[in-house]
Amino acid sequence: MTEQLSTPSIQAQFRPQKLLNLAATTWYVVTTIGQWAFGIYVIGFYGKSTASGDLAKWNQVLPHGYVKGDWMGNLVVGLHVLLAAILVLGGPLQLLPFIRRRVPRIHRWLGRIYVTTALIVATGGFVMVWTRGAVGDFVQHISISIQTIYIILFALLAWRCARARQFDQHRKWALRLFMVVSGVWFFRIGLMCWLVLNGGPVGFDPQTFSGPFLTALAVFTYALPASLGILELYFYAQKAAKRGVITVVALLIFILTALMAVGIFGAIAGMWLPRIG
Ligand code: HEM
Question: InterPro entries, from UniProt (predicted)?
Answer without folding.
Answer: DUF2306_membrane
